Amino acid sequence: MRRLVTLLAENHPGVLTRVAGLFARRGFNIESVAVGVSEVPGLSRMTIGVEGDEATVEQVTKQLNKLIPVLKVVDLDPQEAVTRELALIKVNAEPSRRAQILQIVEIFRARVVDVGPRTLVVEISGTGDKVEALLAMMREFGIKEVVRTGAVALERGHRLMRQERVEEEVS
Amino acid sequence: MSERLNGAQAVWRCLEAEGVSVIFGYPGGAVLPLYDALLDSSVRHILVRHEQAAVHAADAYARVTGQVGVCLATSGPGATNLVTGLANAYMDSIPVIAVTGQVTSRLIGRDAFQEADVTGITLPITKHNYLVQRPEDLPRVFREAFHIARTGRPGPVLIDIPKDVQSQMLEYDYPAQLNLPGYRPTVLGNPRQIQLAAEAIASAERPVIIAGGGVVSAGASGLVRDLAEMQDIPVVTTLMGIGAMPVTHPQCFGLLGMHGRFSANRAVSESDLVIALGMRFDDRVTGGAGRYAPRARVVHVDVDPAEIGKNRSVDIPIVGDVGKVLEALLPSLRAPALRAAEARRAWLAQVQDWERQRPIAYEESDDRPLKPQRVIEEISRLAGPEAICVVDVGQHQMWAAQLWNHQQPRRFLSSSGLGTMGFGLPAAIGAQVAAPGGEVWLVVGDGGLQMTLQELATAVQEELPIRIAVINNGFLGMVRQWQEMFHRRRYSAVQFGPWPDFVRLAEAFGLPGLRVQSLAEVGPALTRARLEKGPVLIDFIVDPEECVFPMVPPGQGIEKMILGPDVPAVRPVAVKG
Question: What is the pLDDT of residues A73-124, one digit of tens each?
């Protein structure tokens, strides 16, 4: 089972090390990590993809909560969250096949962000599945390089990470 | 009102502001400013012979007093020598502050002389750690570090201070307020959960309390006893929970787990309600098996939410300080229903009967060879219940856990979670510093003593009257026992030879040494040792191949418990429920 855990942490040097170190020493698997500043100055927000059963994800959440610079941890319900990944794909684009590529880019609502004599760089954002689907299409033309971010996610609706939730005491 | 000080002066002022009266340390290049400022401080400094001893002594000081223990070391090797002791304090949830020097800020990351990434190294073995980059941060960092170390689930916190930060000036003002938005331990239990626990207790017919180290650190042993007596519940303890209940109390069945008593383990495995207080279902308690306490619902009280459900599934979890939770629980307890009350009296009688059938026993010998268990019992008898018993790690540790007359909390000091050989002697030093007038006995193996032997010099220099009982079997006894039992007696690297002469070693360090080889010599030697004004060592030459029983083989259920060399494993007997 893959879950997304999202957290708010003080934006200090070493916080990412603490989070990553915790996963390493407790034997939890990180699938993806995305880190950036949040809407609050001094706080960064991380979205971590975790592979594991329910008990593992619960332990991950609890252990993350014990890190002093971590202010809040939420195990996101995938049904209740908007999730996005971003990928840049450098694909072979001989002049004869360019039109075909551009058509696929259009269908995926992706964008061409760089044009070279023999390559295009395509930017896509979307769910992991959508990114995978475009990659599959592009493979036909010959992918030279790919770079992907980890997933970022926000809860749907009006709920905010920073709002005091009812202290969930237990599992 | 602030005051202009350099960083080093500020450190001592911070320690004084936290009520620290003594620290254990070892100087070096990166802490020279701190050692200079020490001369103008009221804090007493105990100079150890190796940094590992400083952290173990600080740890033991904390165990005895309940206050934060503090140690100090220089950068690089000084700091890395603290690693074992920090891991030890972390595993046993002991509040310790380690202050380390670091190379000058502009040299950090350049592999400078005596540089090590100490905050990186200690990340997984501290509750939190700091690298102080500006002198003006020192007061806030110390305020936070002490708060973090002593509250919630206690643990060690390391503060790494570059040498230039120690020399730079700051406006010193110790902050009254804390700002730690990411650290708010839950202390009070959830009332709804406490109510559920009360209901479960009222209807239980075969309840048992497992008291762990959390009971001791919360100062809740009186409340545990109240709960047990009010409700006729038997109590068993983990290694860290020893002393939470007087071992002579008719409802106390002592240690459980791998080398626990038959009655204690049996009580848990037949129980219908386990009330787990400040303990963590460690594999030395449960055998590591998933079928622990198979018939029981579990109420688990712990101040660390991450402990709940980590090792054993829990029916009624309560996050909070054991003391605060029990204070809320006790008034809401009703007398058990008549049927339950009768069943419970029968249950208690049953557990007492198991204890009578299978007490901790060992084969007595005539005068020789000396039985190690007997030596430990004799020490306990003479020293009395007020004495502090410090142990190292191995067979003697288990015998002392089983056989010492434990009456109070904070009187039995053991490296329990990490199992650190070499803990004993420095811990005895810390204990004696914490309890200057108290009688401190160190029960230590000949293996563990050789790991931190140099600290005999510290004990002599500080005139600490610790009484050292070496349980000398010439083997690494516990490893030997496992090789005997699980590796067909193929002994591999467990025998020392040639044997160091501990009596002459003691004398070389400047303390009296005695040797005891027969039962007749035990009493007189102990009496003489108790009269010494300074440290004293007795070398007890004991039966070399004695084993610790009972024993639950690792990874097995308690039905596989081995009671003695010739006693077959116990078969489970269903209890009528």
Answer: 999 988 899 999 999 999 999 999 999 999 999 999 999 999 999 999 999 9
Q: What is the mean pLDDT of residues B451-467?
A: 98
Q: Which residues of A touch B (CB under 8 A)?
A: 9-10, 14, 17-18, 21-22, 25, 55, 58-59, 62-63, 65-71, 167, 169-171
Query: What pTM value is reported for the model?
Result: 0.94
Closest by CA position to A34, among listed A134, A125, A163: A125
**Which class is A2-76 in CATH?**
alpha beta
For B104, list phi and psi in degrees, rounded to 5. Answer: -50, 140
What's the CATH number for A82-148? Answer: 3.30.70.1150
Nearest CA in chain A to B314: A171
Q: Do A10 and B319 touch (CB under 8 A)?
A: no
- State the ipTM, two decimals: 0.88
Chain B CB contacts of A10 under 8 Å are 182
Q: pLDDT grade, residue B576 (50/70/90)?
A: very low
Closest CB from A21, A25, A63 relative to B306: A63
**Closest by alpha carbon to B455, among B146, B17, B54, B172?**
B54
* pLDDT band at residue B289 under the 50/70/90 scheme: low
CATH superfamily label, B191-357? TPP-binding domain (3.40.50.1220)
Subunit contact A170:B124, Cβ cutoff 8 A: no
Contacts of residue B457, Cβ cutoff 8 Å, sequence gap at least 6 = B49, B509, B510
Q: Catalytic positions of B, please? A: 51, 113-114, 163, 478
Contact B123 A17 (CB under 8 A): yes
The pLDDT of residue B58 is: 98
User: For residue B577, what pLDDT is reported?
Assistant: 38
Is residue B530 pLDDT above 90, yes or no? yes
Tokens 């990874």, located at residue = B555
- Count of beta carbons in the 10 Å neighbourhood of residue B572: 13
CA B310 from centre of chain: 21
